[in-house]
Amino acid sequence: MNKWNLNIILEKIEMLLREKNRIIIAIDGNSGAGKSTLTKHIEEHFDCNVFHMDDFFLPLDLKTEERLNEVGGNADYTRFRHEVADRLIKGGDFEYRVYNCHTLSYDRTVCVKEKSLNIVEGVYSMHPTLIDIYDYKIFLSIDHKEQIERIMERSGAALTQKFKEIWIPMENRYFSEMKIKEKCDLMI
Fold first, then answer.
1. Which parts of the chain are beta strand (E)?
2. pLDDT digit string (tens) for 108-137?
């Protein structure tokens, strides 16, 4: 993470926290671009809640051909809206379920304590059904060659092939058709 960009983000968060009691930030962007890394850097400076869109991928029973052909349809944005977004807006403590793509099940429940700063991290975090909740929206992009190298390093050859053939084209379609980059406050 470029230190200059991180400082700008930290200053913006501090400013927003002076203006509002509770803020919600989205960090969306290409797989492998550094969304989780940026989130960890922010967590080093602020006490915050972090919500990972990877915990809200579509469960098997909802994976219809129609839904998977929908732009952004492989994220369970309806469940995220109901279990997290609406609760963040309302305030207070709450719980949500984590969907595990490997076991194809909800494998745990997370208890959330109300905090001033809340970060939603991951591809599809700025889906049109969610974008209205954010006080600040960040988009991270990466060169395709470097993206594939990073995915290979963290996920291995078999998953990298799935990223190339399925997931990267789906997320690129989401970024393009829903004009996600254009709706962001900051692009890195």
1. 23-29, 48-52, 94-100, 105-112, 117-121, 136-140, 186-187
2. 999 999 999 999 999 999 999 999 999 999
